[in-house]
Amino acid sequence: MARIPVSKSAIAKIGQAFGEAANNPEKREAFRADPAAYLRACGVSEESLEGLNVVLHEDDDSTLHLVLPAKVDETRLAVQDQDYLKMLGTMAVLGCCRPVR
């Protein structure tokens, strides 16, 4: 389901870069100015970003952005594959920095 292929070893580095951008105004501005360059600096390859318009959306205390996938597996959706539905639900709330109840 990932829109950009990344190595598992890059995930922690990406997480650190996102965390730093959330807390550091200079890094946040760098991310705002050029999200693709910021991701490349995290270890995301140029090939993974090729042809993509990378857009950064920022949550605040009163705004929460959800990302609707471009497409999902219609067959798994139609048969109500519970593992697949749980994965979609998890992806929907992963970016939410509020507790899931």
From TrEMBL:
This is NHLP leader peptide family natural product. The lineage of its organism: Bacteria, Pseudomonadati, Pseudomonadota, Alphaproteobacteria, Hyphomicrobiales.
